[in-house]
Amino acid sequence: LHPFSNEQHMPFPIYGNESILGRIREAYPEWPMELVTTRSFETVHLADYTITPVHAYHLLEEDSHNLIFERAGRKLLYGTDTGVWREDTWEFLEGRGIDLLVIECTSGRIEGDYFGHLSVNQMLEVIARMRSIGALKSDSQIVTTHHSHNGDMTHDELVLELSPHNILVGYDGLELWV
Protein backbone atom coordinates (compact mmCIF):
# COMPACT_ATOMS: atom_id res chain seq x y z
CA LEU A 1 0.00 0.00 0.00
CA HIS A 2 1.07 3.53 -0.69
CA PRO A 3 3.67 4.68 0.13
CA PHE A 4 5.22 1.21 0.58
CA SER A 5 3.65 -0.70 -2.31
CA ASN A 6 1.58 -0.33 -5.45
CA GLU A 7 -1.05 -2.72 -4.08
CA GLN A 8 -4.52 -1.31 -3.57
CA HIS A 9 -5.30 -3.49 -0.56
CA MET A 10 -3.46 -5.53 2.05
CA PRO A 11 -3.02 -9.13 0.85
CA PHE A 12 -3.31 -10.54 4.38
CA PRO A 13 -5.25 -9.81 7.58
CA ILE A 14 -3.61 -8.26 10.62
CA TYR A 15 -4.42 -9.82 13.99
CA GLY A 16 -4.06 -8.00 17.30
CA ASN A 17 -5.75 -6.82 20.46
CA GLU A 18 -8.06 -3.79 20.40
CA SER A 19 -5.34 -1.40 21.51
CA ILE A 20 -2.85 -2.41 18.82
CA LEU A 21 -5.47 -2.41 16.06
CA GLY A 22 -6.66 1.01 17.20
CA ARG A 23 -3.15 2.38 16.81
CA ILE A 24 -2.88 0.88 13.33
CA ARG A 25 -6.23 2.38 12.29
CA GLU A 26 -5.17 5.76 13.65
CA ALA A 27 -1.80 5.71 11.89
CA TYR A 28 -3.14 4.45 8.54
CA PRO A 29 -6.81 5.51 8.32
CA GLU A 30 -6.94 5.39 4.51
CA TRP A 31 -5.46 1.94 4.07
CA PRO A 32 -7.90 -0.84 3.13
CA MET A 33 -6.94 -3.48 5.68
CA GLU A 34 -8.66 -6.43 7.26
CA LEU A 35 -8.03 -6.06 10.98
CA VAL A 36 -9.04 -8.96 13.22
CA THR A 37 -9.39 -8.37 16.95
CA THR A 38 -7.95 -11.07 19.20
CA ARG A 39 -8.92 -11.63 22.80
CA SER A 40 -7.33 -13.69 25.54
CA PHE A 41 -8.46 -17.31 25.58
CA GLU A 42 -10.33 -17.04 22.24
CA THR A 43 -8.77 -19.35 19.65
CA VAL A 44 -8.08 -18.31 16.06
CA HIS A 45 -7.50 -20.74 13.18
CA LEU A 46 -4.95 -19.84 10.50
CA ALA A 47 -4.02 -22.37 7.83
CA ASP A 48 -2.72 -25.45 9.71
CA TYR A 49 -2.34 -23.56 12.99
CA THR A 50 -4.54 -23.03 15.98
CA ILE A 51 -3.48 -19.90 17.85
CA THR A 52 -4.76 -19.04 21.28
CA PRO A 53 -3.85 -15.76 22.96
CA VAL A 54 -3.43 -16.01 26.72
CA HIS A 55 -3.50 -13.00 28.98
CA ALA A 56 0.01 -11.64 29.51
CA TYR A 57 0.73 -9.50 32.55
CA HIS A 58 2.37 -6.51 30.88
CA LEU A 59 0.15 -3.47 30.39
CA LEU A 60 -2.80 -3.18 32.73
CA GLU A 61 -4.80 -0.94 30.38
CA GLU A 62 -4.96 -3.51 27.57
CA ASP A 63 -5.50 -7.20 26.91
CA SER A 64 -1.82 -8.00 26.33
CA HIS A 65 -1.19 -11.42 24.79
CA ASN A 66 1.18 -14.32 24.91
CA LEU A 67 0.42 -16.93 22.26
CA ILE A 68 -0.03 -20.70 22.14
CA PHE A 69 0.60 -22.06 18.65
CA GLU A 70 -0.68 -25.57 17.94
CA ARG A 71 -0.12 -27.72 14.87
CA ALA A 72 -0.17 -31.46 14.33
CA GLY A 73 -0.60 -32.13 18.04
CA ARG A 74 2.43 -30.05 19.09
CA LYS A 75 2.24 -26.86 21.16
CA LEU A 76 4.48 -23.81 21.49
CA LEU A 77 3.87 -21.11 24.08
CA TYR A 78 5.53 -17.82 23.21
CA GLY A 79 5.59 -15.91 26.48
CA THR A 80 7.46 -12.65 26.23
CA ASP A 81 6.63 -9.21 27.59
CA THR A 82 4.95 -10.62 30.65
CA GLY A 83 5.49 -10.77 34.34
CA VAL A 84 4.08 -13.60 36.44
CA TRP A 85 0.69 -14.42 34.90
CA ARG A 86 -2.58 -13.71 36.65
CA GLU A 87 -4.75 -16.58 37.83
CA ASP A 88 -6.95 -16.62 34.70
CA THR A 89 -3.92 -17.52 32.60
CA TRP A 90 -2.68 -20.12 35.09
CA GLU A 91 -6.11 -21.76 35.06
CA PHE A 92 -6.13 -21.82 31.27
CA LEU A 93 -2.60 -23.32 31.08
CA GLU A 94 -3.34 -26.14 33.50
CA GLY A 95 -2.89 -29.51 31.80
CA ARG A 96 -2.02 -28.00 28.39
CA GLY A 97 1.14 -30.06 27.90
CA ILE A 98 3.24 -27.45 26.11
CA ASP A 99 6.08 -28.96 24.03
CA LEU A 100 8.17 -25.81 23.64
CA LEU A 101 8.18 -22.78 25.92
CA VAL A 102 9.85 -19.60 24.75
CA ILE A 103 9.85 -17.42 27.83
CA GLU A 104 11.05 -13.96 28.58
CA CYS A 105 13.96 -13.18 30.88
CA THR A 106 14.27 -9.41 30.52
CA SER A 107 15.20 -8.54 34.07
CA GLY A 108 18.04 -11.04 34.50
CA ARG A 109 19.35 -10.83 38.05
CA ILE A 110 17.53 -7.55 38.78
CA GLU A 111 14.38 -7.83 40.89
CA GLY A 112 12.90 -4.58 39.59
CA ASP A 113 9.80 -2.55 40.34
CA TYR A 114 8.10 -3.16 36.99
CA PHE A 115 5.75 -6.15 37.06
CA GLY A 116 5.63 -6.70 33.28
CA HIS A 117 8.91 -8.62 32.84
CA LEU A 118 10.57 -11.60 34.51
CA SER A 119 13.84 -11.90 36.37
CA VAL A 120 15.74 -15.20 36.32
CA ASN A 121 14.29 -16.13 39.72
CA GLN A 122 10.73 -15.26 38.67
CA MET A 123 11.16 -17.16 35.40
CA LEU A 124 12.32 -20.26 37.29
CA GLU A 125 9.30 -19.96 39.59
CA VAL A 126 6.98 -19.66 36.56
CA ILE A 127 8.53 -22.76 35.00
CA ALA A 128 8.23 -24.71 38.27
CA ARG A 129 4.56 -23.79 38.57
CA MET A 130 3.96 -24.70 34.92
CA ARG A 131 5.48 -28.13 35.56
CA SER A 132 3.42 -28.61 38.72
CA ILE A 133 0.11 -27.97 36.92
CA GLY A 134 0.91 -29.96 33.79
CA ALA A 135 1.25 -26.91 31.57
CA LEU A 136 4.62 -28.32 30.44
CA LYS A 137 5.41 -31.88 29.43
CA SER A 138 8.21 -33.67 31.26
CA ASP A 139 10.41 -33.38 28.15
CA SER A 140 9.41 -29.84 27.14
CA GLN A 141 12.13 -27.69 25.64
CA ILE A 142 12.53 -24.30 27.35
CA VAL A 143 14.25 -21.33 25.74
CA THR A 144 14.68 -17.80 27.07
CA THR A 145 14.28 -14.65 25.01
CA HIS A 146 13.81 -10.89 25.42
CA HIS A 147 17.10 -10.40 27.23
CA SER A 148 18.21 -6.92 28.17
CA HIS A 149 21.34 -5.15 29.31
CA ASN A 150 19.10 -3.83 32.08
CA GLY A 151 19.12 -7.34 33.57
CA ASP A 152 22.81 -6.98 34.47
CA MET A 153 23.79 -10.35 32.94
CA THR A 154 25.72 -11.21 29.81
CA HIS A 155 24.65 -14.05 27.54
CA ASP A 156 27.43 -16.23 28.95
CA GLU A 157 26.32 -15.48 32.52
CA LEU A 158 22.75 -16.45 31.64
CA VAL A 159 23.99 -19.70 30.06
CA LEU A 160 25.99 -20.51 33.21
CA GLU A 161 22.99 -19.72 35.44
CA LEU A 162 20.35 -21.59 33.40
CA SER A 163 22.16 -24.62 31.98
CA PRO A 164 21.79 -26.61 35.25
CA HIS A 165 18.02 -26.17 34.77
CA ASN A 166 18.22 -27.50 31.19
CA ILE A 167 17.10 -24.11 29.85
CA LEU A 168 18.57 -22.86 26.59
CA VAL A 169 19.42 -19.17 26.48
CA GLY A 170 18.16 -17.79 23.17
CA TYR A 171 20.28 -15.83 20.73
CA ASP A 172 19.91 -14.15 17.35
CA GLY A 173 19.61 -16.73 14.58
CA LEU A 174 18.52 -19.60 16.85
CA GLU A 175 16.22 -22.04 15.03
CA LEU A 176 13.85 -24.28 16.97
CA TRP A 177 11.60 -27.09 15.81
CA VAL A 178 8.52 -28.31 17.59
Structural summary, described in words:
This protein is an alpha/beta fold and 178 residues long. Helix content is 21%, strand content 27%. It has four helices and nine strands; from the N terminus they run E-H-E-E-E-E-E-H-E-H-E-H-E. It has a seven-stranded mixed beta sheet. Strands 1-2 form a two-stranded parallel ribbon. Strand 6 (74-79), helix 2 and strand 7 form a beta-alpha-beta unit. The protein is globular.
Concise overview:
With 178 residues, the protein is an alpha/beta fold. It has helices spanning 18-27, 87-93, 120-132, 155-162, and strands at 14-16, 35-37, 44-46, 49-55, 65-71, 74-79, 98-104, 136-145, 168-169.
Layout of strands and helices, then pairs:
Elements (H helix, E strand, L loop, with lengths): L13 E3 L1 H10 L7 E3 L6 E3 L2 E7 L9 E7 L2 E6 L7 H7 L4 E7 L15 H13 L3 E10 L9 H8 L5 E2 L9
Parallel strand pairs: 1-2, 6-7, 7-8, 8-9
Antiparallel strand pairs: 3-4, 4-5, 5-6
- What oligomeric state do the depicted chains represent? single chain
Order of helices and strands: EHEEEEEHEHEHE
Give the helix tally: 4
Helix/strand structural class: alpha/beta
Strand content: 25-35%
Q: State the total count of DSSP E strands.
A: 9
First-residue to last-residue Cα separation: 34 Å
Q: Mean pLDDT, nearest integer?
A: 93
Radius of gyration, whole Å: 18 Å
Low-confidence stretches: none
Task: Name the helicity range.
Answer: 10-25%
Shape: globular
In spatial order, strands of the major sheet run 3-4-5-6-7-8-9
The biggest beta sheet is recorded as: 7 strands, mixed
